[in-house]
From TrEMBL:
<keyword id="KW-0479">Metal-binding</keyword>
<keyword id="KW-0862">Zinc</keyword>
<keyword id="KW-0808">Transferase</keyword>
<dbReference type="GO" id="GO:0046872">
    <property type="term" value="F:metal ion binding"/>
</dbReference>
<dbReference type="Pfam" id="PF06130">
    <property type="entry name" value="PTAC"/>
</dbReference>
<dbReference type="GO" id="GO:0016747">
    <property type="term" value="F:acyltransferase activity, transferring groups other than amino-acyl groups"/>
</dbReference>
<comment type="similarity">
    <text>Belongs to the PduL family.</text>
</comment>
<protein>
    <recommendedName>
        <fullName>Phosphate propanoyltransferase</fullName>
        <ecNumber>2.3.1.222</ecNumber>
    </recommendedName>
</protein>
<keyword id="KW-0012">Acyltransferase</keyword>
<dbReference type="InterPro" id="IPR008300">
    <property type="entry name" value="PTAC"/>
</dbReference>
Length: 283
């Protein structure tokens, strides 16, 4: 075995030892917050940092082979600039810049929400490095919230690559993400990625846990027929998901939910603590 292979195995083992995996319930997913960052093509890396420049690894990212580089760039838009924007490695085929909506306001652009890699028709941006600058006519996006997972995880959650699901958080300011993209690859490690605006909205920090709600359990659309069928519609909780917050807010001592409504473990615990009953009704 050559010294480099040994080195990489040692690094991998050390990394695994250092990673304290939280014990996850079957529907739980660890969340990581992505700060603004830039992926560079080889060509743009050369323009910004010089010919044959190699990025220096600052630290590994959670997804295998991805790393944060020592290098940073400046982003410039019609309204302002943002300094010290982290470059991620390794180089990609296309240069792509991922920012939050707050960043976009500062730059003075209106990027679309996109899956990574889908940059056609996205916003223009100027990237400034120590050796030169690049004007991109497109390449600036706000990243779609997504979950990386292995095929085994996908089987376990019964989801497919490209599917959208909901994820709810049990944070101090609980929120539910309504459109989270599933991305499946043998090289992925289970983790949900959100941007800093999304994290701030929900008081979420990297390492916190979200609960996955499988898509396709749409709330019944209100129709006159439905209302006639259910006599005491006002007392039935109609949401797709009953959370701790819902239980706390409910004025009812018996909270009626439909069969299709998912009750989170925290909601159950809270109901017990508050001596409320959660009753599943068939209709
Ligand atoms: Zn990601």
């Amino acid at each position: 075995m050559d010294p480099q292979s040994i080195q990489s195995i040692v690094e991998e083992v050390l990394q695994q030892l250092g990673q304290k995996q939280p014990t996850l319930q079957p529907n739980q997913i660890p969340i990581a917050v992505s700060g603004r960052h830039v992926h560079l093509s080889e060509q743009h890396l050369a323009v910004l940092f010089g010919e044959s420049y190699a990025l220096k690894k600052k630290n590994d990212l959670s997804q295998p082979n991805q790393f944060a580089a020592e290098e940073t760039v400046i982003l410039s838009g019609p309204r302002g600039t943002i300094e010290r924007v982290r470059v991620l490695g390794p180089s990609r085929n296309l240069t792509q810049v991922e920012v939050s909506q707050t960043d976009a306001f500062k730059l003075g652009v209106k990027p679309p929400i996109r899956q990574s890699g889908d940059i056609k028709g996205s916003s223009p941006v100027t990237i400034i490095g120590p050796k030169g600058s690049v004007y991109l006519t497109e390449g600036l996006i706000i990243a779609q919230a997504h979950i990386h997972m292995s095929p085994d995880d996908a089987d376990r959650f019964q989801v497919k690559d490209g599917q959208y699901v909901q994820v709810t958080t049990g944070t101090e300011r609980p929120i539910t993400f309504g459109r989270v993209l599933i991305r499946v690859s043998p090289s992925y490690r289970l983790e949900m990625h959100i941007d800093t605006d999304e994290a701030n909205a929900g008081f979420i920090r990297t390492g916190q846990i979200g609960e996955l709600i499988i898509a396709g359990q749409a709330a019944p659309s209100p129709s006159p027929v439905m209302v006639q069928e259910v006599k005491h519609a006002s007392t039935v909780f109609e949401g797709k998901l009953l959370t701790q917050h819902d239980v706390q807010q409910s004025a009812e001592s018996v909270i009626q939910v439909r069969k299709s409504t998912i009750v989170t473990p925290l909601a159950k615990d809270t109901a017990r603590d508050l001596s409320k009953k959660i009753e599943v009704i068939d209709k």
